[in-house]
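Fold Annotation — chain and its backbone

Fields — amino acid sequence, structure tokens

___
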Amino acid sequence: MNAPPRAVDMGIMSCHVCRLVTAYTDDKHAHCPRCGSPLHGRKHASVSRSWALLLAAAMFYIPANIFPIMRTQSLSSKDDNTILSGILELWRAGSPGLAVIVFTASIIVPMLKFIIMGYLLVSVQRSSDMVARQRSKLYRFVELIGYWSMLDVFVVAILSALVHFKILSRVEPLPGVVYFGIVVVLTMLAAMSFDPRLIWDKRKSQ
């Protein structure tokens, strides 16, 4: 089955800001006639920048899981919880539903982003013949789930603001939540830096 033509094959391109469709150009100094933003057929160094951001996120993901993200302190006890220990505490406390949600947002979602983005980058570099439409859906899936990884950060921030009764009870954020926040931001930037149009380049089938 012959693949449908790409925009570049028809000599057109779109602005990333206002989406105005203009004639294709290789001029690196070209600008959108409507909003003035730089025009480019493909994002410059898209693959290398995405790899750099993704690898940096993977490095920060290790201390994000090792270091505690939250300290709960009361008159009788003081507990430092990592992501996994916090999930176990929620499960033991009789909130399995909330534990599953936090586990999904904090463990499964980041791992999915690492695996899918890594696969997309490798497939683009190797000019994979896998159906481009499926890879495009994977990329849209990564964009869709990206924001849910911030759940842990939001939970710690809300608890730190609400539970603060001096010596009686208080919740404090710890370094782990900072590392986890960095992981979320870096993975989102990696997805934003990746140019999904590269998926459709050098393809042999739809």
